[in-house]
Amino acid sequence: MSKVFRATATQSLSVSFTVGLYGTAFGAASIAAGFSILQTCLLSLLTFSGASQFAIVGVMGAGGSAISGIATASLLGIRNGLYGLRMAPLLKVRGVKRVIAAQVTIDESTGVAIGQEDLGIDAMKQGFWLTGFGVYIFWNFFTLLGALGAQAMGNPSAWGLDAAVPAAFLGLVWPRLTGKYERTLAASAVILAIVLSPIISAGLPIIATALLAVAFGWKVRS
Question: Which secondary-structure segment (H or E) carries 177?
């Protein structure tokens, strides 16, 4: 095993386990929102996009429709398609392998791959595949553990697990609020969501904040 491969593997394992552990929160939040263990596990196995999964259970758990939940999750998942455009020329996969690559194209696999750029193309590919599969395995394993643990508690809401969804989103967003622009956008989105929540159906305020983000981005570019 080369020194380069060991370094990439170590980084991939560290990222995979840390992110995968977060699946426990999703498993618990999904059960608290009224989903079954099977539904919870299928969301992780098939959707495999943390933010999108939290969006689905958050919207539907709050009484929103399936369409609202799917629309919100889809908006959050657009970035994965952009990652795919970045990774496709590097991976150069075809057929079934292309489908598998698409499934594990997430923030972490893309980030680790790009982080190995100085080590060469082979290290970038190794970083992508090791991290993608690593996160997939750990995320699904801890999702199951979280779901089983929440169900064993009886009424998850009584333990405050219904707060797991907003807490998870806060954990995802907080590290990215590094500049004045990001903080202004976040504050504006919070205010808009609070104002709209008593007026329109659950899920729609989140979609509205996504449109707000587009408006902010358009203004910055113009």
Answer: none
